[in-house]
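Note to self: keep these together.
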Amino acid sequence: ALEVRHEIITNTDQWFTLRLEIWQGSGSSNTYYRYYHIDKSTGEIVTLSDLFADDAYVDAISAEILRQMVAENEAGTGGYWVDAKIEAWNFSTIDPDQNFYFDENGDLVIAFDKYQVAPGAYGCPSFTIPRAVYEAYLP
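Structure:
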């Protein structure tokens, strides 16, 4: 089975963001999301890398996500792959065009697919990134 659902995540004077939820089922299942952003001032589709002046934002945002993952693991509320025995599973960095969206407060949220940074039981985790982490990298 295959199901595709949509939801408008953001619709402000500046941004329109559409989220597609894709669910596949065949013996087991998988869910993943794709976000599409339109800058209303230009009419252009925007990716994460388009928001920043250079690639330095990747390291800054990745470090913040890792910090949040470690804190949740240490608090017993997370099971993120940051110190897995299989090194290839451990989170190291976001993709330059990682899934993202702006939440209702205007905060940047980085979204991951199921199994990308944690076991499937964690679903599709996301991390809210404080503006102070990335504002120096904005144009």
